[in-house]
Amino acid sequence: MRARNTRQQILDATQRLMETGGYASLTTKQIAQEAGCAEGTLFKYFKRKEELCLAVVLENSPKFREAIAGVQHGKSTVAKNLERIALAAISFFDKLLPLVVALLANMELLTEHRRVMREHGRGPKDVFELIATYIEGEQQLHRIGSRVAPTSAAALLLGPCFHRVLIRQVMGNDLFPSSDRDFVTALAATLLDGLSPSRTKRSRRQ
Fold it and tell me: Which fold has domain 49-195?
């Protein structure tokens, strides 16, 4: 149990340093100091810095998939469910984006990341599929129009969330002065105007 805690402390420390200072200047000595352990302890769990940083991206990212999987069709309202997914997406992107920047700054690390993702069948596609599955379930209950393309609807939900976080992290503030809660409420309402069964029926007649 102690070894597991030490490994997690190292992952947490590495993530904090990557978020604040990036990957290029990061050293194992800095990581050890941040984690409160000897530098040699790092190499008991990770062969090199690149392997450690890759583990941060793969293991220490927010549990976005679990959050989406917890949203069930037919439960609550569609608007509330979309808001819940969007809030989880913003939280996910907020923590993931600095790690992605670190990946893009190191081609060796990026190549290894792609290889591992392919081997384990992980990546953005399964997130879209989870949301699309939820939307399909709502379509079967006639709470979302049958002509709506589930994957496209998922993209319309996630895209603005990613853009909001990107602007926030690049500019240092949100593009529009609203809370994340207000943002996702407006986003869900706007999407529902196009996803609702009555709306898709009108579009079919036009």
Answer: Tetracycline Repressor; domain 2 (1.10.357)
